[in-house]
Amino acid sequence: MAKPLRVGLIGSRFMGKAHSNAWMSAGCFFELPRDIVMSTICARDRKATAQFAQRWGWTNWTADWRELMDDPAIDLVDVATPNHVHAEQAVAALEAGKHVACEKPLAATLADARQMRDAAAKAKRRGAMTFVWFNYRRCPAVAFAHQLVRKGRLGRIFHVRASYLQDWGGPSTPLLWRFDAKQAGSGAHGDLNAHIVDLARFLTGEEVVEVAGAIEHTFIKERPLPAGEGTLKGKGARRKGRSTVDDCVIFLARMGGGAVASFEATRLATGNQNRNRIEVNGEKGAFVFDFERMNELLWWDNTLPSAERGWSRIMCTNGGDHPYADAYWPPAHLLGYEHGFVSEAADIVKAVAGRKPVCPLPDFEDAYRTQVVLEAAIVSARERRPVAIKEIG
Amino acid sequence: MAKPLRVGLIGSRFMGKAHSNAWMSAGCFFELPRDIVMSTICARDRKATAQFAQRWGWTNWTADWRELMDDPAIDLVDVATPNHVHAEQAVAALEAGKHVACEKPLAATLADARQMRDAAAKAKRRGAMTFVWFNYRRCPAVAFAHQLVRKGRLGRIFHVRASYLQDWGGPSTPLLWRFDAKQAGSGAHGDLNAHIVDLARFLTGEEVVEVAGAIEHTFIKERPLPAGEGTLKGKGARRKGRSTVDDCVIFLARMGGGAVASFEATRLATGNQNRNRIEVNGEKGAFVFDFERMNELLWWDNTLPSAERGWSRIMCTNGGDHPYADAYWPPAHLLGYEHGFVSEAADIVKAVAGRKPVCPLPDFEDAYRTQVVLEAAIVSARERRPVAIKEIG
Amino acid sequence: MAKPLRVGLIGSRFMGKAHSNAWMSAGCFFELPRDIVMSTICARDRKATAQFAQRWGWTNWTADWRELMDDPAIDLVDVATPNHVHAEQAVAALEAGKHVACEKPLAATLADARQMRDAAAKAKRRGAMTFVWFNYRRCPAVAFAHQLVRKGRLGRIFHVRASYLQDWGGPSTPLLWRFDAKQAGSGAHGDLNAHIVDLARFLTGEEVVEVAGAIEHTFIKERPLPAGEGTLKGKGARRKGRSTVDDCVIFLARMGGGAVASFEATRLATGNQNRNRIEVNGEKGAFVFDFERMNELLWWDNTLPSAERGWSRIMCTNGGDHPYADAYWPPAHLLGYEHGFVSEAADIVKAVAGRKPVCPLPDFEDAYRTQVVLEAAIVSARERRPVAIKEIG
Amino acid sequence: MAKPLRVGLIGSRFMGKAHSNAWMSAGCFFELPRDIVMSTICARDRKATAQFAQRWGWTNWTADWRELMDDPAIDLVDVATPNHVHAEQAVAALEAGKHVACEKPLAATLADARQMRDAAAKAKRRGAMTFVWFNYRRCPAVAFAHQLVRKGRLGRIFHVRASYLQDWGGPSTPLLWRFDAKQAGSGAHGDLNAHIVDLARFLTGEEVVEVAGAIEHTFIKERPLPAGEGTLKGKGARRKGRSTVDDCVIFLARMGGGAVASFEATRLATGNQNRNRIEVNGEKGAFVFDFERMNELLWWDNTLPSAERGWSRIMCTNGGDHPYADAYWPPAHLLGYEHGFVSEAADIVKAVAGRKPVCPLPDFEDAYRTQVVLEAAIVSARERRPVAIKEIG
């Protein structure tokens, strides 16, 4: 019997919950080479963390993340904290000899990302592995599109059209940590463009080589302070604070293979709640993925007789046919958001055990390439000029 | 140069307008073997008819439909009047040696339909042709589906699921002629089920052989009288009158080839304005047509590799590929409702000139088969029992 | 601290997996009044059951379901076995003083269902509760539609149009237990119509009062025996066996409030993999739910200004707004098939603890009403006549 | 009785056909203040033009466009020729005292456009009117969206996302005039971006103020010569020629009111045949128009209770509710591509007669503003820098 993989997780908010569920469920749905042990959860609020541990089945809890580094009973540290602490925690874990799985974006700044990439390269020589939670790669529809491209079904690629549109950032949304550049690094850009730059690179197998033009914009410059923080004594009125991040970043780019690409991330696209959409048009075929209908891939086979060409809505839920689908339910018994994390946890366990994951896992080096593109977009927007990727990193 | 085809039209309401447009446009869009001459329009209101004639380019007008029968300068009489006068007008025209194109349903009663079929058979021996305006057959998407079935692309047919849902018949809709059994024969049944029974027969190439069960229902038993008719003097309140037709008829049937079928027509399907929808599921393929997206055919090719099967949304607008499309605009420059009539007018001219229409044209015999199915459904609903089609006609 | 609820589960196939996941996850996502203890799993194959227990976290396992009945450490027995053993197992559990949660349909025969209903009534007086896993009620979109109806947003209901279309039952599908009337009771009918009859009753709050006509049909009369069972020695050819269940049952009905309804279940609707769809048209509003897009409700508000009426695609994923959504993820981070079970497990725990579930839970009496409708449809199909529901039960 | 409006048309290809149909049909569908007389058609091929005249009902024909200018019996000259001759013909017509309706884009070069604008301004003082066939403004769905914006239903606008995607420009498409910069001025840019820049300006009521970045790209640098032109004698092989226009132009922009905008035109977006799509996200509402479903407007009312917000698919076909719909057919009896031209012809007649068109008609001044934006995009792409609109014109 193989040694189990013992996991320590830092973070218990949205991502802490998603990762806990992933570690809990991966071994149920997938036949894994090593059992998963949910060893220790770490978060700042002691009482809430103790409760969280009990609820999700973590054996231990702590409020001090450094304890995980020192614990010989932990094999992998999962970093699900705000972006500005990724570097410190991930590097410490790598130096402690742990494997590290880090939430995206890799870091809040390019300097942090570079440090993490370098630490990962060093640790790799000692056998430590790194992973980044670009969970959308593991939507069966996305992983299936990736296979189609690999098989040459698209032919020469002309266009990549990627956007991640949300609308929760209206003027009444309070000044959460995500609107603070110190904690978040950026706004929609790091949060959302990180995902679609990764998807574009993953799906086409091509690198972005130039950002040709960009706009970075903050529509809502002041926001109400969060409840409890901002009320003026005895007045009831909410004080306001300054948002220091972008609400949207949109940029044009060229891919290594000659395709023209566009990327847009925004929190003010009214009517789009979580529209992570990518369209790729090739000479022989094209596809559209839209996360709001994440079980479906729109596939256009340009080699069919012209009378029969159309956007085919493929329900990517057939075990045997579509990646990851056989682990879950029968055809068209839909999967949801969380399954991307469950499937990634399963692939991480496989990778650590020396097996091949179902589809390629991003490591720190890979995520660093995405971070460089994000940086190039910001430089392009601020310096109002095209920026070659190799200028940046 | 071939002799032109001289047309006389009876009716100037909704269908009078649709047919006038068809006769005006058919020769512009299509290369026709005979020119169309819009000879005479006939309707009851003299002043309005004179104006209508001028507007749509009819050379003459009259308020007496019998004048058309006596006019040697008319080759084809187009009957676009309420259902209860179809028989009298069509039979008179046939007896006068004219070709006849009649609006659907063929007639208000089965007795009328039978009389028309017999007159058509007799006239046919003298060279007169009959046509029925089942316009939906000539949506490119429908005609393309018809070709797919003919080529064996569906294989054995399991299911036919047809419905024509409208929602204009709510309680505030006044007591128009369509709610009067004497004029209309029936309500949603003759108006809407006529279309989908024709489509089912046309698309599958199979006849309905049994109605297994049916419901006929009138939800709104009393309706306000139309403006002008129903106002109580000095009161303003609207008087009500009794609706004598069905609001919906729904029935189950078996097709000659073994398929199980369902048909539903209703005017109270809130949210469905003109949803003429038919789905056919076969062993090798399936399709869905929905008139509210009339340019599209949803096609499922069950012979593709299972990983790539999906509902393919084919825009049936490619000249060369899709029937009728080459007469109009480039791909995805959409067609509308009226084009079914334009294309049918063109096919009628071809048929009269001895050419083959793009897809089969229904004659009175064909429309009579549809009428028999409608009658069987009513008998089934009223006698609360299955009804074999051969019992009826 | 409340006493935990200790669960014993019978069944480890598709439903055994879905229920295990539900019991595992319910307490993670929901704040529950009692902890869930996954006590004992029971299934026939000893080795596989031991593995299943370990994988999904069941403390004990057994191959003898009667052990669960005798175990005082089990509070609730969950029956996830083929239909023909529901009655024996559920009644035994009720007699042993357990709460019972049973998979749908309630039973394979009406006689079994009646026995279960009676046992449940008796046990209820002793405090035992019964539940049936009509999981689709707990799709947030369905539960939200239920609220709209309760609030009077549809007004008078005219039409219910329900269908559950699958396509896995083609001629090459082997003779699984689901095609054996002894084990399954029926084919598509009990499997699929059970769901949509429950949904129609749940969503409208009205009972079916008459089946007006029905067709029961078996398209594929012989099927290959399953691998291992049917190979002729030394030949390789697959032997065939007789299917003794329907492939489709379709029927027309009348609801207590005057609506006209149709129901269709089939396994041969090529292109429809799991299309559980219900449309309800009312005077003031209408909705469509389609499980293949389970996160969305199509809602037509007929009281809006007519220019602005349309089918509104509501993503039913907002915590605070849509039932169950607050337990899971942020808006438009989609839910999947399994969440219906997780939410039902949570509601069962609440109900057992005397709390109100988020939306009504079906008990044996409720599921018996559904079973009566299914029986009426079969009687109507076989005796070729309308059947009043009160004739049956 | 008002004097009729006598029209002379130059051009008999795709646009010649669309305009002929518009002049023929406008007076049938619409109640117009002046009758339309289809006076003279002009095109280069004498025989084909004579046939065209007969087919579409033009009284006279000529191969010399200058004859139209000299003909006192022509009130309005309609210019439907390739872009590079617009200026010469339109200016001549204006100088001859005619009203002019010109196809879009206004001209092949900014210099031409400026000349046309100046001529129009001068002629305006003498009472001559100018019009540009931006036909998409008159899709009922677009005109309805325009009304929603005017009524303040969107509030502050954050995003404009416009793209016009076609896919007919693959490598096998021959070197038509549209690929020759001398005749066409540009490729996808003038052909397609012209439409969506007009739509963005029309729909938001805001001007583009800056192009922030742009890419102009020619994927297919050499194309086969058209049949007849390119065959090497005795060889059968097709010779190739150089494409001198863009295949795609994509650019980022800022609107006068602060919105961030993107525009993309391409002929290589495999799977998109005629996808003219614009999305506008405002604080109070948002809409999406997609020409491939031209009868529908997706409308998101952000002021509804949050539980009921969704993309509402409004079928913009209700007479009384939706612009232009009352001229044609009952609700959901769809309109097609050509109706935009018919409705524009009707509005032109109204405008010439001093009546108010249903929605604003673009004149040369207005189309010149669009042309300036197109020029700014090209300058931005070529000089690789942001370009302020006021730099250009």
Looking at the overall shape, the CATH architecture of the largest domain in chain A is 2-Layer Sandwich
| CATH superfamily grouping of the largest domain in chain A | Dihydrodipicolinate Reductase, domain 2
Label the overall shape of chain A: globular
Question: Which chain pair shows the most residues in contact?
Answer: A-D, 44 and 44 residues
Order of helices and strands of chain A: EHEHEHEHEHEHEHHEEEEEEEEEHHEH
Mean pLDDT reading of chain A: 96
Largest sheet of chain A: 9 strands, mixed
Enumerate how many helices of chain A there are, as a single number.
Answer: 11
- Binned, the helix content of chain A reads 25-40%
Question: Could you say which structural class the secondary elements and strand pairing of chain A correspond to?
Answer: alpha/beta
According to CATH, the fold-level topology of the largest domain in chain A is Dihydrodipicolinate Reductase, domain 2
**Roughly how many Å is the radius of gyration of chain A?**
21 Å
Strand order in the largest sheet of chain A: 16-15-14-13-7-12-11-8-17
Level-1 CATH class name of the largest domain in chain A: Alpha Beta
Number of strands of chain A: 17
- Quaternary state of this entry equals homotetramer
The low-confidence runs of chain A, each spanning 5 or more residues with pLDDT under 50, are: none
Quote the beta fraction of chain A: 15-25%
Total of domains of chain A: 2
Q: Between the first and last Cα atoms of chain A, what is the distance in angstroms?
A: 44 Å
